[in-house]
Hints:
Layout: H1 2-32, E1 33-41, H2 55-68, E2 74-78, H3 87-91, H4 95-103, E3 108-109, H5 120-129, E4 133-134, E5 139-140, E6 151-156, E7 161-168, E8 185-186, H6 189-202, E9 207-212, H7 223-229, E10 235-238, E11 244-250, E12 253-258, E13 264-273, E14 278-288, H8 296-314, E15 316-322, H9 330-345, E16 353-359, E17 368-372, H10 373-379, E18 385-391, H11 397-406, E19 413-419, E20 421-422, E21 428-429, E22 437-442, H12 443-446, H13 454-460, E23 466-472, H14 473-481, E24 486-487
Parallel strand pairs: 1-2, 2-3, 3-4, 7-9, 9-10, 10-12, 15-24, 16-22
Antiparallel strand pairs: 1-13, 5-8, 6-7, 11-12, 13-14, 15-17, 16-19, 18-22, 18-23, 20-21
Helix pairs in contact: 9-14, 11-13
The protein binds zinc ion.
Residues 81, 112-114, 170, 213, 240 line the site of zinc ion.
Amino acid sequence: MSAIFIPIFNRVFLRGFCVVILVAMSITLRATTEKLTILNTADIHGRIEGRHSGLLKLATLIEQERRTAAPDAVLLIDCGDTIEGTFSSWETRGETVINLLNKLRCNVWVPGNHDFDFGVDILARRIQQFDGIVLAANLHSPPLADKVKKWQMFTLGRTKAKIAVIGMACPQMYDPAICGQPTPEVSAIDQALREIIGEVTQSRPDIIVLAMHIGKYASGFNVYSLLADFPEIDLVLCAHSHQQLPGEKVCGAWLVQSGKHAQELGKIVIEFDGQNRRIIRIRSELLPCDAMMEHPTLKAAVEPIMTKVRQLAAERVGRVKFIDADRHSPELLLGTLAADAMRHAAKKQKPDMAVYSSYQRHTKLRPKMTVSRLMLFNWFRFQDRIGVVTFPGNSYEFDNIIKELTSREKRGYYSIFSGKKLSRRNRIKPHEPDKPLTVVFSSYAISGAGNKFPGLRDFSSKPGRTHMLDKRLRDAVADYLRTNPTVKYRK
Ligand SMILES: [Zn+2]
């Protein structure tokens, strides 16, 4: 019996011994590995409330995620285009958005190109207001120099994982003249990385995160060659192109882009081995905010300001009469309104004509309308200013610019003219070759309209050719509406 017993005892003992070892190993492993959570937002564009999106719904989701994550093992990173984009964010100049980011305990904000739209002074105030750290290694803007860092080390969780976060602003700051201030200089991402990567790695981070305001497929930017050159980077957070990329391997790094308008929250979980100081694996997903309840406490906190914003939105600006509102598409009628208003606003400069360019619109226009502030904002959403460009007499420069302006129509980008008529062949009529020609444009067009009008950009940027007026396009239209205009599209 004992012969049998002993081996049985031995087997049981051995099995027990193995179990003890395994449990002990898993306890040590559990003690040294942990899940670090990085929450990510991008292109919020001032969305606070809304049916499908907004910071108030996002807040509920973030709170939920924080509750299930390991304590002190969560980092919240916003990748920019945060404060601009809605009527409420315009009226509060982004202040309420930053207040909410602070309530969400956002750690990092990488400013996007549109975060400069209210002007660099307003952005400086928002950065001051932000409780976290603003990162942009490639931004060279003297008024922001002491407020923006290139990178920051964070220590997370009980393994004290060292996470270096490097921020990169948008290298495509295509709207320099919009806020009437000089363009902040933004260098190429690879160049900026080359300058700081040594300093970052010398600080011995366990994980390197690159948070940047540019999309995976942005023109003139190649994320594959960037990451091939910088194998040190473990995680890349993209923005700007409003895409949803739940997570994919690009070279040796993991790349995520968290959509837009606070419609989704990027959740990246890094399994980290604290003993060997290495990443075991990265998993990520985009969590939809749609079904979330708006956060009750935060909703109550912003309600007074939102009530005020709603009152402002309903305020009447003036009346407008659209001739043949049913026969012409809204972009032609709104384009005519804008071009007429721009010419009116620049009347001291005695402009020959004004041109307004925009995409196809899906607004419904009625023959007679009372225009509210919200309506005006939605018709002319960006912070464009107005500039007068002078073309020398006896030159074909303007003919070429007209070609450039009208060549975009096939792709749904319309240019509407006010003032001197164009001939069938798109020449100025009547032709006065010796007289200089003065034309009013929006600052967006003058800055090349996101590379749609490079000829206009190159021409108008030469010294002495462009005179910027201290007037926003939207205000020019509001002034014009006060005189009860009639808008008639002229082919
Ligand atoms: Zn952007």
